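Researcher: Good morning. I'm working through a list of sequences from a screen, and I'd like to move beyond sequence-only analysis. For each chain I'm collecting a predicted structure so we can compare shapes side by side. This is the next one on the list. No need for commentary yet; just the structure.
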Amino acid sequence: MLGRRVAITGLGVVSTCGIGKDAFWAGLHGPGITGKQWITIDDWNPDPYFANPKVARRADRVEQFAVAAAEEAFAQAGEIGVDPRRFGVIVGTGVGGLGTLEEQVQIRLEKGERRVSPFLVPMMMANASGAAISMRYGLRGPNETVCTACAAATHALGYAARTIAMGRCDAVVSGGSEAAATPSSLAGFGNMTALSTTGSSRPFDAERDGFVMGEGSAIFILEEWEHAVARGATILGEILGAGSNADAHHITAPSPGGVGAIDCMRLALDDAGLQPDQITYVNAHGTSTPRNDEAEAEAISVVFGTHRPAVTSIKGVTGHALGAAGALEAASVVLSMQHGAIPPTAGTTNLDADIDLVMGAPRTWTPGPTMSNNFGFGGHNGSLILGPA
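Model: Good morning. Structure tokens for this chain:
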């Protein structure tokens, strides 16, 4: 990425396999999802992250996740010391406050318009998570929300890194949040045959039959590298490059042969100034849907050729968190770099792709440049390249 280097100095995670980055890392090594078309954080309690329960209830679940993850990220980053006017917030989501919207539509139908909450609009807004973080920490730089379906968080992280690299900001809060496992959403995804009919998430498996809906948030603190070094921050990793493009093919299906994904990965490599054989690990989008996994596997094979980097998908454990998926997956990459291990692709036993998929057990790994991919409905493609500290 041209311009200034971008350091990662804070990370917070709320996920279906663990709340907090340590629990998340442990959860990534757990068993795969079986017998469920969706997985949610059933014991979620937002109250500790807000002034009081009343304030918490005025935030949709998607905002609650983002606020909680941001709290952990800021705690790890420490005193950042950046001019608030040069400290931005760029967060991704696929849907926003869908749970609140569905709830209030039902109230209107059953009880009438006068009973609809005056908090409906600020709770359902896709930009509510970024706004909440900005207001809580007094951040007055660019505050923008990326809404590009399942590529949203990856796009947000790439865009945030570029604002620092180009000198627009000195620090940015970035990542993604999603809480879209609602009745209407699940019905829609189910009726379009995107959800697994067997309730199993098994990326790149010959028996895969759709994704399992997930939810959660991962939030990062990004800083200009020299500023982070000067203040003595612990640097967790670096964003080296990012790519973004469109299939311009179909609203839900990937382009045949993964053409858009191929171009996107190559854009990210070019942005990072790297050759394919310098990538040591690919964190795949790997949704467990027949078309996505086929197209992505083919794209990985074309881009990397005889160089076969390790590949994994964490969706076997986390489910598919839509717009937050890229943030959770980038978080898993950063943690993999810290632990020197790549988590296995849970649930996958019968590989149906010509890639070096990590299965069965974690793989010891010497951290190096890593690519993380996400591809969304609408033909949105995003690839992020991260490096160890």
